[in-house]
Amino acid sequence: MATFVLIPGAWLGAWAWEDTARALRERGHAALPITLTGLGERADAAGPDVDLETHIRDITGFVVDQDLRDVTLVAHSYAAVPVTAAAGRLGSRLARVIYLDSAPFAEGTGLLDVMPEEIVDQLRELAAEDGDGWQLPLPPFDVIAAFSSLDGLDEERRELMRARSTPQPFRTFEQRLTGADEPGPDVDRVVVACNDAKALLDAGVPVLDFLNQPPWRHFHLPTGHWPMLSMPLELADTLDAVVSSGR
Fold first, then answer.
1. Which of 54, 66, 73, 150 is the most buried (most CB within 10 A)?
2. In angstroms, rounded to a whole number, what is the distance separating the alpha carbons of residues 110 and 33?
3. CA-to-CA distance for 237 and 247, rounded, in angstroms?
4. Contacts of 121 (CB under 8 A, 6+ apart)
5. What region holds the AB hydrolase-1 domain (predicted)?
6. End-to-end distance of the chain based on CA atoms, in angstroms?
7. What is the 3-state secondary structure (H, E, C) of 178-208?
8. Torsion angle (degrees, nearest 10) of CA 28, 74, 223, 235
9. Is the pLDDT of residue 223 over 90?
10. What distances in angstroms separate CA 70 from CA 3, 49, 93, 95, 239, one per listed residue?
């Protein structure tokens, strides 16, 4: 059985994984959702100094402090950025990295670099007006829909997300990835793509072409960008299938 360390995307905490984590445990796995600094129940640790490196240390520190081995890191959305670095720092502790509707980031890039310029401008304005310039509240859903699919999020799930989200320390979006080493060659590399990401992979978008080459493996969930909320049990089934199928 696998040891899953589940890292949520922007604005979310460990709470977002509750249903998926429960289902994974019922299948015999260890499922360990974590909350990154400044988010969820750790919102009181937020501050202008919380940045990408803070979240990289959160992930690596959690694995090392718990003395975890044969770890499967699951990175949803924004978490792909710190996980890209953490995966290279965990050495033999890491068995597998799963990018959930996300992908590893290239050296020298950050989350804002992969967003349309007009969306970046809106996010900067929101952070300046409602976040004292250093934190980013969850944007309105019509803004989110411009860069992330809301498929599967009914009104109840949107309200849950709105009610339980916490502002994202904006430096984590602004800071670019540096010093990220590739994980070892024996680490299993997997993408679990939801609808929009699958369409990009199927279309052979050049910047993502490496994901269509070995050693990368693909799985698909027919939903939008937040499968832990829209299809939590199906997500658990898929993660179970990933580790059951091996490389």
1. 73
2. 23
3. 17
4. none
5. 4-237
6. 15
7. CCCCCCCCCCEEEEEECHHHHHHHHHCCHHH
8. 0
9. yes
10. 7, 32, 5, 5, 15
Cα separation, 68 vs 64, in Å, equals: 6
Centre a 10 Å sphere on the Cβ of residue 147 and count the other Cβ atoms it contains. Answer: 17
Q: For residues 32 and 9, what is the distance between their CA atoms, to the nearest angstrom?
A: 15
Residues contacting residue 155 through CB under 8 Å, at least 6 positions apart: none
Cβ–Cβ < 8 Å for 98, 190:
yes
* Domain-wise residue ranges, the chain: 3-245
- Whether residue 31 contacts residue 21, with contact meaning beta carbons closer than 8 Å, is answered with yes
Global pTM value: 0.97
Mean pLDDT, the chain, as a whole number? 96
Distance CA 144, CA 9 (A): 13
Element (H, E) at 100: strand 94-100
Find the mean pLDDT for residues 90-100: 97
CA–CA dist 185, 129 (Å, integer):
45
Asked, as a colleague might, if the bond just before 215 is cis with ω within 30 of 0, I would say: yes
CA distances from 77 to 69, 81, 100, 148 (A): 24, 8, 7, 9
User: For tokens 């799985």, what's the residue?
Assistant: 219
Radius of gyration of the chain (CA): 17
**Which residue intervals of 131-180 are DSSP H helices?**
141-144, 155-164, 171-174
> What's the pLDDT score for residue 180?
86
What fold characterizes domain 3-245? Rossmann fold (3.40.50)
Question: What local confidence, expressed as pLDDT, does residue 81 receive?
Answer: 98
